[in-house]
């Protein structure tokens, strides 16, 4: 019942059941932890893990797999490392599922080398392990490496699954490898008889659209063998926003309003397209519509782990105990960035306030607060690791590049789509994201 409730997204009910159980064994503990981990509440899952250990209940392989997933989803690297130690102590290190969970955890926590080291050390690998490694390289922007691994997997006689192709296509998309992506999309059906579903179609639209081939993306959608889904139109809309195509953006948004009227991202993306084109009236109309329909924008937040504690920030945050120092640091950085030639990009902010105020708001985006906090609370020279629940905005991306150079530190940001490694004024994504 705990598992069932959690899988339906009803965590409160699951937790009540769990709390009421007079006797809990490893199965019940694992069920509730899995519930938290799968819904993205990594920290809560970890708290339960340590409670369970304190009570003397020994974790099994499934427990570890779920706890590692919890660390992965919330990018809790130091906890992930601790759990890794527990795994080794328990003698489960070579277990198939756990090694794969470790590969996934290290990749999602920004440590692709550690991830690969574990992958290399596995004596046997199933398709799930290969998929985890390929996805890791894709998210970090190493598309060539992802493709190379995919070929190695094929050569070793392992049959790729639909997920393998999704990973390969999204890797191509993050690196702008359009020809390669098209090749693998065709190969999926021709060589493996896997029929494309919404996800793979969306990847292809993303691949073409991101590369600026918007007409081809539209033609591709019109030729799809299934009815285009919200994901597919969403990919087109996102590309229209990057490339400032209002006409096609409107078309995609209209389809999305019909399919998923509650999807806040549609309103935000279209409104941003209008704002970028200076059409404030239409942008404002759209926001009113969003309000009238009661659609809520998903709040953006970023978090950073310092000395085993997770610090979470939202835009314009004032709650953090060190907030004054954080804003002082941001002011200092803003000055240094201006001297270095940074002009704030206000196009992508969903506000029609005047420029000065807009600039002010941009400086207080959650990822900037997290960066500033990390800078004042960690030793000079150490790398900084930040996670954001949404996509990073253009201005924060540019600012992170500048800051990495000014302070001489590597800044790694995991956003909703991928990893960005900022170093010496450049980002590993090559500004293609
Ligand atoms: Zn931002
Ligand atoms: Zn980047």
Short description:
This protein has 22 helices and 6 strands.
Describe the SSE topology.
Elements: H1 2-7, H2 11-20, H3 26-38, H4 42-54, H5 61-74, H6 77-89, H7 96-108, H8 112-121, H9 127-139, H10 143-155, H11 162-175, H12 178-192, H13 198-210, H14 214-222, H15 230-243, H16 246-259, H17 264-276, H18 280-292, E1 301-306, E2 309-314, H19 323-339, H20 355-363, H21 366-377, E3 384-388, H22 394-407, E4 411-414, E5 419-423, E6 426-427
Parallel strand pairs: 3-4
Antiparallel strand pairs: 1-2, 1-3, 4-5, 5-6
The structure holds zinc ion (ZN) (2 copies).
Largest sheet: 6 strands, mixed
Strand order of the largest sheet: 2-1-3-4-5-6
Considering DSSP H and I runs of 4 or more, what fraction of the residues is helical? 55-70%
N/C terminus separation: 41 Å
Low-confidence region ranges: 349-357
Describe the structure.
The chain is α+β, with helices and mostly antiparallel strands and 433 residues long. It has 22 helices and six strands. It is globular and about 60 Å long. The two termini are 41 Å apart. About 2% of the residues have low confidence. The protein binds zinc ion (2 copies). The site of one zinc ion has 5 residues, from helix 22. The site of one zinc ion has 5 residues, from loops.
């Amino acid at each position: 019942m705990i598992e069932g409730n959690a899988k339906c997204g009803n965590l409160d009910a699951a937790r009540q059941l769990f709390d009421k159980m007079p006797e809990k064994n490893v199965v019940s503990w694992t069920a509730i932890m899995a519930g938290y981990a799968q819904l993205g509440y990594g920290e809560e899952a970890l708290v339960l893990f340590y409670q369970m250990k304190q009570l003397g209940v020994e974790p099994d392989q499934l427990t570890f797999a779920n706890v590692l997933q919890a660390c992965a989803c919330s990018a809790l690297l130091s906890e992930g490392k601790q759990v890794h130690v527990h795994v080794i102590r328990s003698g489960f290190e070579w277990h198939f599922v756990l090694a794969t969970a470790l590969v996934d955890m290290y990749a999602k926590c920004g440590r692709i080398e550690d991830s690969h080291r574990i992958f290399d050390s596995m004596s046997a690998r199933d398709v799930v392990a290969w998929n985890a490694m390929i996805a890791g390289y894709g998210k970090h922007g190493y598309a060539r490496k992802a493709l190379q691994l995919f070929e190695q997997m094929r050569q070793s006689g392992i049959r790729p699954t639909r997920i393998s192709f999704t990973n390969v296509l999204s890797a191509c998309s993050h690196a702008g490898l359009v020809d390669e992506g098209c090749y693998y999309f065709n190969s999926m059906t021709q060589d493996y008889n896997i029929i494309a579903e919404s996800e793979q179609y969306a990847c292809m639209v993303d691949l073409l659209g991101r590369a600026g081939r918007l007409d081809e993306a539209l033609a591709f959608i019109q030729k799809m063998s299934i009815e285009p889904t919200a994901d597919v139109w969403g990919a087109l809309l996102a590309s229209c926003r990057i490339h400032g195509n209002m006409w096609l953006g409107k078309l995609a948004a209209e389809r999305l309003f019909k399919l998923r009227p509650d999807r806040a991202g549609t309103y935000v993306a279209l409104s941003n397209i209008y704002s970028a084109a200076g059409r404030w009236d239409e942008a404002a109309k759209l926001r009113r519509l969003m309000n009238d329909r009661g659609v809520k924008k998903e709040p953006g937040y970023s978090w950073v782990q310092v000395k085993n504690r997770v610090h979470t920030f939202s835009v314009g945050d004032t709650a953090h105990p060190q907030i004054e120092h954080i804003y002082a640091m941001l002011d200092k950085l803003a000055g240094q960035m201006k001297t270095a030639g940074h002009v704030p990009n206000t196009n992508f902010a969903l506000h029609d306030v005047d420029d000065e105020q807009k600039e002010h708001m941009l400086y207080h985006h959650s990822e900037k607060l997290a960066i500033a906090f990390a800078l004042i609370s960690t030793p000079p020279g150490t790398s900084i690791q930040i996670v954001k629940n949404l996509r990073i905005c253009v201005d924060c991306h540019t600012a992170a590049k500048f800051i990495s150079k000014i302070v001489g530190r590597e800044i790694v940001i995991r956003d909703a789509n991928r990893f960005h490694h900022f170093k010496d004024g450049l980002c590993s994504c090559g500004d293609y994201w």
